[in-house]
Amino acid sequence: MDEKDMKILDLLVSNARISKTKIARELNITEAAVRKRILNLENKEKILGYKAVINYKNVGLSASLTGVDVEPDKLWKIVEELKKLDS
């Protein structure tokens, strides 16, 4: 992985929907080179996938599953604090 691959990853992390044309312009390389580099990053499992960031409240969902490590003697204090939060 070289500096251009790292820049591609940085751009994709910032905006996974960025076009290959924009990446090519940013790196001063061809769009074909960008496609080849991204495919290589995917094949080497440097890129594991792409995800959508959903506005759950906007689509009518408000639940969340969150894991928390808590010391046993503080468990009920944490439960009471969580109950106070807006849902």
From TrEMBL:
SMART domains cross-referenced by the UniProt entry: HTH_ASNC
Domain HTH asnC-type: residue ranges: 1-62
Signal peptide, first to last residue: none
InterPro entries associated with the record: AsnC-type_HTH_dom, HTH-Siroheme_Decarb, Tscrpt_reg_AsnC-like, WH-like_DNA-bd_sf, WH_DNA-bd_sf
Claim: RNA-binding is one of the keywords in the record: no
Keyword list, A-Z: DNA-binding, Transcription, Transcription regulation
Recorded superkingdom: Archaea
MF (Gene Ontology): sequence-specific DNA binding
Name recorded for this polypeptide: AsnC family transcriptional regulator
Organism: Archaeoglobus fulgidus
